[in-house]
Amino acid sequence: MAPWPPKGLVPAMLWGLSLFLNLPGPIWLQPSPPPQSSPPPQPHPCHTCRGLVDSFNKGLERTIRDNFGGGNTAWEEENLSKYKDSETRLVEVLEGVCSKSDFECHRLLELSEELVESWWFHKQQEAPDLFQWLCSDSLKLCCPAGTFGPSCLPCPGGTERPCGGYGQCEGEGTRGGSGHCDCQAGYGGEACGQCGLGYFEAERNASHLVCSACFGPCARCSGPEESNCLQCKKGWALHHLKCVDIDECGTEGANCGADQFCVNTEGSYECRDCAKACLGCMGAGPGRCKKCSPGYQQVGSKCLESAGFFSEMTEDELVVLQQMFFGIIICALATLAAKGDLVFTAIFIGAVAAMTGYWLSERSDRVLEGFIKGR
User: Fold this and answer.
1) How many H-runs (helices) and E-runs (strands) does the chain carry?
2) What are the two backbone dihedrals, phi and then psi, of residue 79, each rounded to the nearest 5 degrees?
3) Is residue 259 within 8 Å of 274, Cβ to Cβ?
4) Residue 368 region, left (φ>0) first, then alpha (ψ -120 to 50), else beta?
5) What angle do CA 300, 304, 310 make, to 5 degrees?
6) How far is it, in rounded angstroms, from Cα 285 to Cα 303?
């Protein structure tokens, strides 16, 4: 519970200020929590192992001309074995094999350090390929090129040319993946040995396939010309080996909102908003309205804004208004000529009232509505 404010103006003000500063700020003044970003995808263990081996081999190249150091190198090599295959060189290479920020590499190295030492001292001669011995045979993280999955099955198209050379075998070289071929643009089929949608065979032999693009709207074709179409893409219809655009707007194939109209495009259509003067429309602008929006009226073939109740007058009403105007002018001149005589002034006021009453009697409802709407 906060203490009561002290007596005196200045102490009380200071007390109030300190109390205000200790209050929690509003939500909009409080710092927002940092946005949470999704963690980066973890590399496949095979890729981590390959990176470790590549870094290890670079370390061997970097230390190929090193020795034990010290004074008498010849004596050291004779008594402590050659530096080339020494434990000293192995330790120097392993110290720099993983970057400081590569957690996966450090974890894999910790798990496989004894295997690396075993290969270094006992297996180099019979298994010179460290990647094959460590990553594939020992840790079983990788597969030979052209194979995939836990059993290292051949990719579609064979191990020599996976996916026919026109795609990527998912999981190739690892113990994971589905082996599905992700074909290059223009190629398709299980092993990318066919031409994909919108392409045709321009050239083929026992080991080579060239797929070229069909003419624009053709989904299948026998050649590059407009008249070589065999099947059309969506939004087009085949007619005498040519693909003709379908008018979705004219065939009621479009699906536009109540306050939109349809515009045909090549192979498709667009829905665009009606003019604000329209309640439903058949095209762009106030001249294509089905009905007029509130505040607009039909003038000829267009829906236009109403300029006020004067714009709604008939010709007869305009004649009456003109007569009233001229009558007012005549009465005003007569009053001035009489130099303010009350008789003429009374006649003037009466004439104005009579003409105004006559005119408004026919239009009172519309006048009232016009004033209410501010028009």
Assistant:
1) 8, 16
2) -100, -25
3) yes
4) alpha
5) 90
6) 9
Read off the pLDDT of residues 102-133 as tens digits, 9 standing for 90 and up: 999 999 999 999 999 999 999 999 999 999 99
What digits encode the pLDDT tens for the residues 320-354?
666 666 666 766 666 666 665 655 565 666 665 55
Instruction: Name the residue type at position 369.
Output: E
pTM: 0.56
**Residues in CB range of 164: below 8 A, 6 or more apart:** 157, 181, 187, 191, 192, 193, 209
Q: Is the dihedral of CA 70, 72, 76, 82 positive or negative?
A: positive
Backbone angles phi, psi at 154, to 5 degrees: -65, 140
∠41-47-49 over CA atoms, to 5°? 125
Distance CA 62, CA 65 (A): 8
DSSP code for 259? T
